[in-house]
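FORM 7B: Structural annotation worksheet

SECTION A. Query
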Amino acid sequence: MSPEKTRKDRWARLASMGSDELLDRCRQYASARADALRQRLGLRFPIQVRDPGSQSPPQFFFASADISSICHLLEQRFPRETADIVQRAERICQHRFDLLGYEDLDYGRDIDWHCDRVHARRAPRKSFHRVRFLDFAEAGDVKITWELNRHQHFVTLAKAYRLTGDEKFAVEIFRQWKHWHTENPYPVGVNWASTLEVAFRSLSWLWTYFLLADCLVAPHEFHCEWLESLGISGRHIERYLSTYFSPNTHLLGEGVALFFIGTLCPELRSAQRWKRRGWEIVLQEAHRQVPADGMHFEQSIYYHVYALDLFLHARILASLNGTVIPPGFDRTTEKMLEALCWLGRAGVPPRFGDDDGGRLFNPQRNRTEHMLDPLATGSVLFGRGDFKEVAGGIREETVWLLVSKGVAVFDNLVSAEPPSISVGLGVSGLYLMAEAGAQRQLVIDAGPQGAATAGHGHADALSICANSNGRALLIDPGTYEYVGNSSERDEFRGTASHNTMRVDGKDQADPKAPFAWANLPKTRSDLWITGEQFDLFTGTHEGYSRLPEPVVHRRWVFSLKSHFWLVRDLAAGTGQHYLDLFWHLAPDLVPRGSADLVFDFPDQRNGFSLLTTEGNGWNCEILHKVWSPAYGRKEPSTVARFRTVATLPAEFVTLLLPTQGSAANLGKLEKMKSTHASVSGYRYEAPDQEHYFLFAASGRVWSLGPWTSDAEFVYFGTNPGGVRTLIFCNGSFVESGGQRVVSCTRAIERCELVETNGRTELFSSDSKSVRETLPLDSITAECEAAPVASSVPVSSVPGSGQTGV
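SECTION B. Predicted structure
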């Protein structure tokens, strides 16, 4: 970015500030420079300590007397986890660390606390406010440096000490503690540059202190040093709150840390103020950051879990120490847990949006399989058997937070299957198509790209992820990194890395900075109908309206429960455009090797297929790409890409088929011949089954082949076993072969007729309006297929060489 552009952006940002923000930023600016001057003059930052008086001592999650029984419980319940704690602690003593997705990083004999060891970059030792921590050339990937300096590995060492009784783990903590404070004098260096990082480090110090209670090898001065360090950290957090810089999980985490320090360190003179202010922030951010549907406003599933961790820890500590918990806060927390429970019913939740890689309590819980951990704790707090069922078992974190009483409550809680209903989280724009028993679930992202400039959102409007029988089928490839010396940040968050359409090789929005986008798309849900046998979604985004010849992407998703999902994509507009559709397969799905798009899991008992219309004119490629299971880590994956050059409007239909066994004959999907551009029909035929899908504009009478209706959508199918189903949405009648099969007195949202062994059942949004029906075996559905299209060369189209991640 040119200096002139940077100056313009800064002046525009300054002009956008309100008076409160301007005053706060000026105060922080002056305070940071005053602190830097104080340090240069060799002056101390005195922290006032007082006698807390006769007030009851604060309560941590566990008492010193509980630690032995907790360790015994962990060894019984989590033998592998406890062994892993000790093994990791051994490596930490050798200064070998697992940070984010990076494993076994060797920091040598003397740890360089300012170094990004992965990229061999060292941040400068200057006053924190002058460190350009997002400049890779100056600081490397600062998340790696900060992850080490969160000191969560101190907690690992302390747990290993408690599990084994080996004092070397405690001695290593005190050695690193001394060294860190020597190398990071306040306020010098990158490790004071982010207030959130100071907050995380403070929480680690608190956990470490309470785990080391009565430790015989603790230096006699440790308690005083610990109080002074937390006092400086609390002062820093209060002065440099991210009220305007990053008012999201940054501000929330800082509020939680202030509350913890204020609650657990009553000897500090500012403790009561910090406790009060921290709790105010927690309550205010619960109200501001979590909308009515329970999803976190960053539009990132990982950040949703991240925020949920913070809320749960604060809530439990507040309860233990007599802090009043408003009912509204509990409702919000339970609602967040409920949203996570919905998302995890059929397996690990999708990973829409950024994956930060950081977690409270244990940073190793940074893989997708750990996303459901909060449900175990939430099941105890709220008595929810469905949370317990989806969590699948208690977690180590729950044992430390709720001790043996919480474990007993969890064990006695009766598990309950979550409802298998399909759910629309309307504010966040997530639509979950579930099936009976929640064995399969497809999730559609039709929400805003993110809060403000969508710093943690991806260009993934109308993207889809799917699970079946606890396994992922279609995935979001993740995040990989925030800053680096390549374009991979933008590639992973770009449109090509998501299961949606890309136009003319461009993303749906323009990446502006590592944590900002320009020209954010407007995304909306046009239709969401759930029935007994089906779900139907229609959504639109206008991210490509900024093109010289604007394009609107509209997507239909129809779920015939327990069978398949049909996805219809329409690029509406004028002119000729290069179109891409991407399907990112789960990493353990392997192409069978035939001409069909059939993918098998290693056990070959289940799989997944993509069936497209014959002769559709789109080129198909199987790409060998990568995905990121954790921040900083890449692994191989498979992507199916369909592409074409088309004069708009153009559409493409994909049948998503979870398969069992060999799935030798998938059948074929054909486009029906139509003389009206406003009506599109498709026929899917496989052994012992036949299905028709008809799409039209609502409110108008139309005909296609033997069908006539005024409905926006019509489905008719015969499944193995002879079960016939007719569905229509937003219409009043359906005719087949000149016979009126079903008729209503007015247009209704949905109508379903299911015929089994000559018996017909009616399910309708307004059954009183249904006037007459005929037996479904009277339907005549023969129709002519559309002519086969020829493939269109794409190599000459600008941008056609761009393939994304």
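SECTION C. Observations
The radius of gyration is 29 Å. The first helix runs from residue 3 to 16.

SECTION D. Sign-off
Analyst initials: ____
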